[in-house]
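note to self — DONT lose this again. spent like an hour looking for the file last time. sequence + predicted structure for the chain T wanted, 491 res
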Amino acid sequence: MLLAALLLGCGGGDSTPAPSTGSGDPGAEAAALLADSWMRAAAHDPAAVMALLDAPGGAGWLDLFHGDLARAKPVFEAADSASARLGLARVHLDRAATMLAAASLHREVALDLARYRRDHADQIRVGAYEPLTALLAARAAGAEGGELAAFEAAAFKPAAAHADPQLFDALRELIEGGAPDRTLGIVYPARLVFIDAMNQGDLGRAEELVLLSHKGDPDVVDPLGEDAEAGVIFTARFYDPRFPTAVARYHLAHAWIEASALDGPGALIAAAVEGGWGDPLPDAVRSAAKPAPAGAPLPAWTALFASFAVDAADWEAQWGESGSAFSDRWGAADRGADATLQALAEAEVTFADALKEGAPPDGASLVDELSLAQPAIDRVLRSRMTAVTGTGDSAEARVLCKRFGDRSVDPNPGSRGGAADSARTRVSWRNDRAFLLDYAHCLWRSGQPGGALDFVHPLATEDPAIQAVKHYLGQLDAAASIGVQGKTSQL
């Protein structure tokens, strides 16, 4: 039985009671907070978990639990059950969440590098197309006012003498809202069409370009000269910041289709798609559907099984829909870091007890063996981390986001099973890819580009769509060492 396999691979440790938070009745508070959680539903209805895992294609849930999406996807695709259909929708949602996190970091670091190169133009090699690609990065990142005007003024100056007139004009056309032809090479035009197709929800047109557009090649390569003595050729690379969002929408559209006829969990998948899309969902996606699978419908809460959303309201808040974030319900956002970390340490046992209260023996074992209290703890930590990351670059924010992130990172990925390369990628039952990218974002904001790069590099190796983030962080990490190691000319 797959449930037994899941438990054998995820043995938990013994729990010892911890002191309460000292406010009210911690047990009653935890029970109220977790009353509608998927973890409590699973503990109180282990038969539903068994039905999910033992259905045709249900084996993919074990891989999904460990974050092994590459193994889970074909298992789900090979079956046509409600379990497999839901599992495949969840794989696509995980991919979409990863790309949305990558897109956020991409936009920020691309603009930061453009700013660095602008401010240190007398120290670096400046490319012929740099003013144009810098403006594309600035617009994508939402630069405003005088800064945006300065980027625009630079972009609309005459081309440098050594620029390729056709490439320069094509980039200028792109800036002005046009759709350049193959003058931009092969990969970039394919990506531009893919971006446009997914903005319209046109999966048919996008599918034709997936293999070509999803390579790790840069969109523009700007020659910067060479060091003949060292045998090194220098280039500046540009990756369009809009592409990761288009990839996210591609996966969101597939998630919508897979869950379109699922009674019960389908509504929560649909809410995630609409929230993650960012703009109004195109009619082409909204009208896409598959026939309903055979068999009885699944409980609604199974849409969240093995996710880091605690309940339906938290799921909707996580995906940007109007919801109620679990972290806000758990405690005041202005609670100090020390108090938050201490209270969460105390809450782990309290949460587990609340989940097990009234559950059958199999369900109570599920709570212990799968550490079902951990998603609630990590949800609070990660919500605090991302909230602080977005508040700016103050010294206090840099320290706080790292403290919350450090506490939520699984220090031993692969120790409970999972993909063969989990120790390298750090993906595990706790470390989903979107969180790892959010944590890299936190490290970048904390002034640690090298640390951020350490988390991004293995993810970029398995997914070329993240290659751009790796490149920009690598350039910024090199820039941070210029004054020490004398590498100015290499930028």
